[in-house]
Design goal:
Layout: H1 19-25, H2 46-51, H3 61-65, E1 72-78, H4 83-92, H5 98-107, H6 112-118, E2 121-124, H7 129-135, H8 139-148, E3 157-159, H9 171-177, E4 182-184, H10 189-192, E5 196-204, H11 208-219, E6 224-232
Parallel strand pairs: 1-6, 2-5, 5-6
Antiparallel strand pairs: 3-4
Helix pairs in contact: 5-8
Length: about 240
């Protein structure tokens, strides 16, 4: 490994993200085990029970009132500085080299390792053909390959229609924007039955994308659908 410069503090020689900056900007926080919203309660093992397909009472107020389609969700970071800039380099400047560093942060998130071990299949959130053509690669697929290439299935969940980016919409619009956007490939429906699925995505905002995807996978027979994301947008 050649020496590098930390992209955040500019320390040299260093890794692309030095240990000091990881400790400062990627500290684990207690999150709702269903939507990854930060909680005021300390970190606990509650999410572990959710990942094991059992119930937990340590949910945020929104998930307490209405349980989402997703069964569990882990997030490594909050989508704030400096991660907003680095993720933008990864996604929009075609700097796919960040995927390995981000995958390490995802594995280090509380309970993420358990989620990866328990998952039968990793399914990256797919892009539409139009978006894939513009971007050149699916960032979620690259992250999934770094997390576990052997478990990754990129042709199981299909993006049927191109929709406006979720980030460009109001929350109320995000909740309906993806209606009918996902489908399970017909030949992959039978192998999904009874499987523990882990969805992989880069940024979680309202949760609509994950919930629409989880709904489709459960309709195809998946027993449990969780998610592991790189960053969660603050409320």
């Amino acid at each position: 490994m050649l020496p590098s410069q930390c992209a955040i503090c500019k320390a040299w020689p260093s890794q692309a993200i030095c240990e000091t900056c990881v400790a400062a900007f990627a500290r684990p926080v207690s999150r709702c085990p269903l939507c990854a919203t930060p909680l005021s309660t300390p970190l606990s093992t509650s999410i572990s029970s959710v990942l094991c397909n059992t119930l937990s009472s340590t949910f945020c107020s929104v998930c307490t009132q209405q349980r989402p389609d997703i069964d569990a969700c882990c997030a490594a970071l909050s989508y704030t500085w400096p991660w907003t800039q680095l993720i933008a380099q990864f996604k929009f400047q075609r700097d796919a080299g960040w995927a390995g560093h981000f995958a390490l942060l995802m594995v280090s998130a509380p309970f993420a390792e358990d989620a990866l071990l328990q998952a039968d299949v990793l399914i990256p959130i797919p892009l539409s053909k139009q978006r894939l053509s513009q971007r050149g690669f699916n960032q979620s697929l690259i992250l999934a390959h770094h997390l576990s290439r052997a478990k990754t299935q990129s042709q199981t969940l299909l993006r049927m229609i191109d929709t406006p980016p979720q980030s460009s919409l109001k929350r109320s619009q995000r909740l309906t924007n993806l209606e009918g956007a996902f489908a399970v490939a017909p030949l992959m429906a039978l192998p999904l039955r009874g499987q523990n699925i882990l969805l992989i995505d880069d940024v979680l905002t309202s949760g609509a994308t994950l919930n629409f995807a989880a709904r489709v996978l459960k309709q195809a027979g998946a027993a449990h659908v969780g998610a592991l994301v790189l960053a969660k947008t603050p409320e």
